[in-house]
Specification:
- The protein is mostly helical.
- The protein contains 22 helices and no strands.
- Helix 2 runs parallel beside helix 8, helix 7 packs antiparallel against helix 8 and helix 16 runs antiparallel to helix 22.
- The longest helix has 28 residues.
- The two termini are about 25 Å apart.
Length: about 475
């Protein structure tokens, strides 16, 4: 396997090829695209689970956001050992390990549903996400290696479009299966044995859906295992040394566990601060973080994922507000007529949020061949801020569809930030990907803070949107900074 190439410079959309080599593995890109599709779709299913579990277990917004906290918490705890595992066994076997772990997480939804235990749902999501993390550690750098350096930005954005295809399809199907009876009866009207029976019956569609996912993931894992030798493993090309020592990792793990305890039993804000001490300890004095470009980019991945997940997690509840789209509207009725849904149905519209990201990534893949990635990032982050401001200061369908349109602005952010941050990493690409995956922990922290603010303001979802606005503003700043060559 050849050395990881130096990525394209951000100051030139089509820089001259610097002579860096890349992996010659015809057909392997299709497997990687499939991995992007799977972990993208599974991640977006959380947006369907949250309103369902919120109703079943009569949760506050903060409690409901524990779904995202447990899912994206895996990025904090598994990102570093995941990178270590991939360096040890190689990309293809690492992908298989991640897929098998994802299968185990899907199967845990069966006992979680049959016992109607919220904590077990959260545990199943953590195991599922652990597998997703390992797969993502494989997929992000691998797609960069499967082609010339000068088209890395475009190629990674195109691969992320398949991720968005999964995030578009999965929640639409999931909304039909899981949210079909959301409004039939409210769990807060029941108690005792009736409540337990209701929860078990209503969660049956959940475990059946995840059982189907387990079967699909198993087929993909088998295919990757069969073709595992298409990409021979050579750990010398992945860099020397460990990202963090075993002792430091275990101490950080203990801090993270303490933080979770404090968040649940004492104070949420205090708990989050203690949890954040874990990555601070792990990555303290890390050579990669001494690179301003990489550290700023890692922060922006934290904020981008947090902002995107916050909006996606709350968008169904946001649309169902009386002053937004609880009673539908002419555009909604027209769209529902096309898909055959009830005239006022809005739950499936979450697919438009993720569908916008998919469309934008295909468009962005072409635009990044002509325009500076840094400039495009500034444009999209600014557009996201404007759309959120319009949504929170209007009513009706205008408020609803402008918030859904934020997905279009999100489209190129992750792959562009990732590739800009990781320029010139060379043999440190695997370590860089591991740190970036730790930064995806923002998908746990920022939505939780959004839920805390929403509850503190009496359920004011519009006012809480100040949190993603701040995130997008900082990302826009990175776009301006990253216009400079690495």
């Amino acid at each position: 396997m050849a050395l990881a190439p130096e990525l394209a410079t951000s100051s030139d959309p089509l820089p001259a090829d610097d002579g860096g080599q890349h992996i010659n593995a015809p057909g392997l890109q299709y497997f990687v695209m499939g991995l992007f599709f799977i972990f993208g779709g599974i991640t977006s299913l959380n947006d369907v689970l949250i309103p369902k579990l919120k109703e079943l277990f009569t949760l506050s917004y903060t409690e409901a956001m524990l779904v995202q906290f447990c899912f994206f918490g895996a990025y904090l705890l598994i990102g570093i050992p995941g990178a270590r595992l991939v360096k040890r066994i190689g990309y293809m076997r690492g992908a298989v390990a991640g897929l098998v772990t994802m299968m185990a997480g899907c199967l845990l939804f069966i006992p979680a549903s049959q016992t109607a235990t919220y904590a077990l749902f959260l545990f199943a999501l953590f195991i599922l996400a652990s597998g997703v993390v390992i797969v993502q550690v494989v997929a992000n750098p691998l797609i960069s290696l499967l082609g010339p350096a000068k088209t890395t930005h475009s190629r990674l954005t195109f691969a992320q479009a398949f991720n968005s295809f999964g995030t578009t399809i999965f929640p639409i199907v999931g909304a039909a299966l899981i949210l079909g009876s959301l409004a039939a009866i409210s769990a807060d009207q029941l108690s005792g044995a009736e409540l337990q029976a209701y929860r078990q019956a209503e969660s049956e569609a959940i475990w059946q859906g995840y059982l189907g996912l387990a079967v699909m993931i198993g087929i993909v894992a088998l295919a990757v295992w069969i073709f595992r030798n298409r990409l021979p493993h050579d750990d010398r090309t992945m860099g020397d040394g460990e990202l963090v020592s075993n002792n430091r990792y275990l101490i950080g793990l203990a801090l993270a566990a303490l933080g979770v305890f404090l968040a649940i039993q004492v104070n949420g804000w205090l708990g989050v601060l203690v949890i954040l001490l874990a990555p601070a300890l792990w990555l303290y004095d890390n050579a990669l973080l001494k690179r301003t470009r990489f550290s700023y980019g890692a922060l922006c991945i934290f904020l981008y994922v947090g902002a995107e997940v916050s909006i996606g997690s709350i968008v169904i509840n946001y649309l169902l507000q009386e002053h937004v789209m609880a009673n539908g509207g002419p555009i909604t009725a027209f769209l529902n007529g096309i898909v055959g849904a009830e005239p006022n149905a809005v739950e499936w519209l979450i697919g438009l949020y993720w569908g916008g990201a998919m469309l934008g990534r295909f468009i962005g893949s072409a635009a990044l061949r002509k325009f500076s990635p840094g400039k495009i990032l500034v444009f999209n982050a600014t557009g996201a801020i404007l759309l959120v401001l319009i949504s929170t200061n209007t009513t009706g369908e205008l408020a609803g569809y402008t918030l859904l349109a934020v997905g279009l602005m999100n489209s190129i952010m992750f792959p562009t930030i990732f590739s800009l941050a990781c320029e010139k990493l060379g043999s440190k690409a695997a370590d860089g990907s591991g740190i970036i995956n730790v930064a995806i922990f923002g998908g746990a922290v920022v939505p939780l803070l959004y839920g805390v603010m929403a509850d503190a303001t009496g359920g004011n979802l519009a006012l809480a949107m100040v949190i993603p606005i701040v995130c997008y503003a900082i990302i826009a700043g990175f776009g301006i900074f990253a216009r400079r060559p690495a």
